[in-house]
Amino acid sequence: MTSSFPLFTKLKLGIPFLVIFLILVYLVLIPLGILIISSLTPSGLPFDPGWTFQNYLLVYQDAQFWKMVWTTIQFAVGSMLGAMLLGISLAWVVERTDLPKKGMLRLLLSLPMAIPPFLLAIGWSLLLSPRIGFINTLLQDWFGLEEAPFNIYSLGGMIFVQAISLVPSTFLILSPAFRNMDPSLEEAAMTSGASRWHLFTRIFVPLLSPSLLAAAIFMLMVGFLVFDVPGTLGMPVNIFVLSSRIMYLATDSAGGMSAYHIISTIAVFFLVILLLQASVYHRLTRNASRFVTVTGKNFRPRQFKLGAWKRPIQILIFLFFAVATIIPLGILLWTSLTPWLMPPSTEGLAMLSLNNHLAFFTNDLTLSALLNSLVIGVFAATAVALFSVLTSWFVVRSGSKAGKFIDLLAFLPIAIPGTMIGIALVYVYLNLPALQIYGSIWIIAIAYITTYIPFGTRSTNSVMMQMHKELEEAARTSGASWLQVMRKVVLPLTLPAAMAVWIWVVAHCIRELSSALLLQGGENQTLPVVLWNFWVGGEPNKAAAVGLWLVALLFITMFLWQVWGKKSLKNR
């Protein structure tokens, strides 16, 4: 039945549309517009007179640029393939087999998300550095090797660490798809005499292909976006991908503002590639409902019996957990307790102390960075959660082209890496002196809000689709205003999803490095930036101590996320 209430008239929907549109223009379109304009000016400053394509000719005719593009593709594809291989395998054995203690296994496979990728890279550099790596020195001593057998400071090392960091997200994305497959399809195929190979190729692959392709493209986008691992392991040995090259040019004191025309030109190429990937991802996730196999009929997925393979598979899962969490955190803990870099040994036990950890709580720099991280995280998470609810309400309730346009605009930042958002905001606020937030925590908060809006709206969109508009119409009939409807009906019903978004954004704000690194200035440093500066400044022991407390903070937020998720399920 078509609604006749004023709440859903074009006039009433026009006000939220205008508010949402202006916010998205401010957060997304203006920075990107200035970035594109900057690529067309001789100096890279957006308001310079005279536009030119000379910057594009300068960058795109350089053979080194295309070599860097090829390195980026290898890194992104390699890490995506590694993450997908492990993620698919883990999702299948946990969700579709009779493996015991699945709750504990899901927890073990999600815990590595609490370790920021750049901290994981630091941990493995302490283990596999050709000069100081503990595993390398151990193998050299044992086997009398003249050279280190492993080198983490390589493209292969970068792919290895990035793939490990992506596996938990891949597992969480794919698990519901494996868990919710209707077993009647498999039973019908097996009744018809289908072999396991035919069952895999004719049933599993067609049904899972949308989820698999969406996950693969998302992980590929992340491989193009990230700076953390390439910056930690690639930059020191001049292995650059697009994101790390932009960061290097933007933070190089020798180049300064003179490199901005090169930065913006590289960023435009970067943006085009990521927008193409984002459009494919958006199309796949939008059409996912065509492949729905879960209906109102109750069912339990068919469990494959592992037999004698149960114990070996459990050992392999624990081995992954050790590689992704225990081993890198173990070497970071040892390093944080020592006065200088030294390999773990019985002789070194006498030198262990808590000095670096005590310094974390007594150093004004680290305490200020901790406070900045918390304030930025809480502010950005609150803004993202509220804006996501408002945006999803308009997108779902309007059912118009305007709603689809807003949804697409809110999704656009998923294709913009943190390095590009940081550069764009530098351009904006250096040229808008009236808004004096450059060098403050608020410019970092704006960067985070822009970055995480797509993730917030994806979560609240699905919840809003499940809410019938009759609830709002009833409130409106009782004389409630639009604000009262939003406050007393929409917000309470979307609170579980909004809180999940809030906790998720807080956790990611606390661990995010690239935007905060580009936008640091004055007293707005965050914990990841302080950690990074300690590491590149030759103070690895202090960096390890800060990193461990950062992980502790992230473990707490993940615990709250798990508790809230269980509470929400019970209240349904």
Question: Can you walk through the features of this model?
Answer:
The protein is mainly α. It has 23 helices and no strands. Helix 7 crosses helix 9 and helix 17 crosses helix 18. The longest helix has 35 residues.
List keywords for this structure.
572 residues; mainly alpha; disordered N terminus
Strand-helix topology:
Blueprint: H1 10-38, H2 54-60, H3 63-95, H4 102-110, H5 117-128, H6 134-143, H7 155-179, H8 183-191, H9 196-225, H10 228-234, H11 242-251, H12 260-286, H13 310-337, H14 355-362, H15 364-398, H16 401-411, H17 418-430, H18 441-466, H19 470-477, H20 482-511, H21 514-518, H22 527-536, H23 540-571
Separation of the first and last Cα atoms: 27 Å
Describe the main β-sheet briefly: none
Q: Supply Rg.
A: 25 Å
Classify the helix fraction into a percent range.
Answer: over 70%
Strand content: under 5%
Mean pLDDT figure: 83
* Secondary structure category: mainly alpha
In short:
The protein is 72% helix and 0% strand. It is mainly alpha-helical and 572 residues long.
